[in-house]
Request: fold
Amino acid sequence: MKKVRHGKIVEIVEKYDVETQEELAAYLKEAGFDVTQATVSRDIRELKLSKVPAGDGRQKYVVLRQDDGRLGDKYIRILKDGFVSMDMAQNILVIRTVSGMAMAVAAAVDALKFKEIVGSIAGDDTVMVAVRTVEDTKALMERLRGMLE
Reply:
């Protein structure tokens, strides 16, 4: 039952911007899982969900997909080390990096598995990130700014 519930939690946080444990519990109850706040709290810890900026000053839970729980921090560190600036052109996010760091920054962005991102291409000091919509691009820029602070 726990494995099925964990699968549903991952599905929910990938589909919705879930900001609180109470919100997650409500989605789970809607899906037929009878859970307490304590159970949801334990599940969040076990799944190693992280909160990231979701835009408009809000935060949301995300699943950082990797084998090693510390990789999420490494990806963020790579972003911080290589980042110079970012700008958008419609649904394309352009990230300027330190010379020679674009491939590492692109790999870090891809590894974070943001649902808004379709894919990325890296040169020497520039990463072009294809994003689903203009609104998603704006939200993604906010999330990245939050991670870079």
User: Anything to note?
Assistant: Strands lie at 50-55, 58-62, 83-89, 92-97, 117-122, 126-131.
